[in-house]
Design goal:
By secondary structure, this protein is α/β, with parallel strands linked by helices. β2, α2 and β3 form a beta-alpha-beta unit. The chain is 43% helix and 14% strand. A six-stranded mixed beta sheet has the order 3-2-4-1-5-6. The protein is globular.
Length: 221
């Protein structure tokens, strides 16, 4: 059956001046995943990414690992929500937690609380509303799950992927955040689709990360 593989980008550059670029590990993760897909004979006839650099670099690495060349579609609806912009809106008057963009624990704790407020429309003047975010993610997925394609690779980000799954399962927003916080870099999530329906078929899978390489390749940010 036609399958949409929603893939989270590889490890980005957390704490750096430009987060939106893959680290050395991120490039290795992408290549390893592409190699695994090729070994399994899972070959896409449509590939896509959002507009973010880390998503584009991840897809390029996957295709190199598969030794395939395909022209990707760009769907901005696959982009991550602007967490930095949400923080600026929430803490416009100051009071932001120390280390929220450089310390992993502080960052994810702040993310959890901030997104919950955003989902309840409690943050004034956000970069986009929660409803706008969920709508664009849904529109992007619908555009990819179209007739005439069998295997779709789409590189996105943890928040957008988790929202796509949450919408499919019709779960409350809190579960979107829980899924996002456990999403591994280059994790594969599968949605099987037909013209009439869609089916959730796999979550947060990293078959290319094994006991032999997990110490280096298993990352979350």
């Amino acid at each position: 059956m036609p399958t949409l593989y929603l893939i989270r980008h590889g490890q980005a550059s957390f704490g750096a001046a430009d987060y939106d670029v893959l680290s050395e590990v991120g490039h290795e993760q992408a290549g390893a995943l592409g190699h695994w897909f090729a070994e399994q004979g899972i070959l896409p006839d449509l590939v896509a990414h959002g507009s973010l650099r880390r998503q584009k670099e991840t897809l390029a690495g996957i295709l190199r690992g598969m030794d395939r060349q395909l022209q990707p579609e760009e769907h901005p609806g696959l982009d991550e929500y602007d967490f930095g912009g949400l923080l600026k809106a929430k803490y416009a008057a100051g009071g932001e937690p120390e280390g929220m963009m450089t310390d992993h624990k502080s960052h994810f704790r702040t993310l959890r609380h901030t997104v919950a407020e955003w989902q309840r429309d409690e943050i004034p003047n956000p970069p986009e509303t929660w409803a706008q975010f969920t709508t664009r993610v849904d529109d992007a997925c619908r555009a990819l799950m179209r007739e005439g394609v069998e295997t779709v690779f789409a590189v996105s980000s943890g928040g957008a992927i988790s929202q796509a799954i949450s919408a499919l399962l019709e779960t409350p927003g809190v579960h979107q955040t829980k899924m996002q916080l456990q999403m591994k870099n280059t994790a594969v999530n599968r949605i099987v689709f037909t013209p009439r329906s869609t089916y959730f078929h796999g979550f947060n899978e990293t078959p290319h990360i094994t006991a032999a390489n997990a110490g280096r390749l298993l990352t979350y940010a």
